[in-house]
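Bit of a strange request maybe. I'm writing a small parser for structure token strings and I need a real example to test against, not something I typed by hand. Could someone generate the tokens for this chain?
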Amino acid sequence: MAVEIDDRGKRFTEQVHKIPTRVVIQTTHGRIEGMVHVHPEHRLSDELNQTTPFVAVTSATISAPEGSCLVPFVAVARNHVLWVIPVEGSGESHEQR
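Reply from user aminoacidic:
Good idea to test on real output. This should exercise your parser:
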């Protein structure tokens, strides 16, 4: 990724465009429904198989035995994910490519 620095030291990087994909994620502690953002050249499974320790989920509803809440962002630890299901009608189907 190219980085440009102006004369005042401000850093500019390329903007990364991703496709939001609605998913349901079952974790060891509850269920999360929200948007996982997928690179246009990747499938949802490619995005989930990355080596980073967390999956970023936006517009998330977190449901657990203690109750549920709506949050703008949650980072889900990959080692706590049991399964992920894409929600139909959430935009482009990455698994069909």
